[in-house]
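Sequence in, structure out. Go.
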Amino acid sequence: MKKLFFAAIIAVFAMTSVSAQTFGAKAGLNLANLTGDTDNNKALTSFHVGAVAEFEISDEFSFQPELVYSAQGTHIKYSEDLGGGNSYDVDYKMNLSYLNLPLMGKYEVSEGISLLAGPQIGFLMSAKSDGNDIKDSMKGIDFGVNLGAAYELESGMFFDLRYNIGLSNIADSNDVTIKNSVLSVSLGYKFN
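Output:
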């Protein structure tokens, strides 16, 4: 896994330094959750920050690889009535940190407005649940697909709205299926 991780990072930076027409940075808000065999979970508000490169293929199409640190996970909260005025309350967060490599295709539909789509590979950096390290119970690699839209100003500033649909089971178990689900809003700047 480490070899694949470092090969992906080297490939992105090699493309960026050799022939990127624009590069930049972005940061923003995540509304992250887990889907699958989960109950009583709610979206967890977190963040992401990363680097962006863009390679123009034609006037309308471009390829946009990114390298993004993303805080993800879920918030599990519920209360169970035990009777007699007693209840059992559960309230904790599962915090997952990924280094994601989205490989986005970008189609400009009108001046400054683009549609985005592409696959993503994520490398699990850490996993904690209620303060306990649970990285050993999670898979180290996550695969997903991103769909979104972006608006870019002539100055290079851009806004990005994206939804990541997790495709792989991130639980290191055949009995449980858990997938990432992340809605992201980004603000960034591209240098020409």
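Check: The beta strands are 22-36, 41-42, 44-56, 61-83, 86-110, 113-129, 132-133, 141-152, 157-166, 178-191. The chain is about 10% helix and 70% strand.
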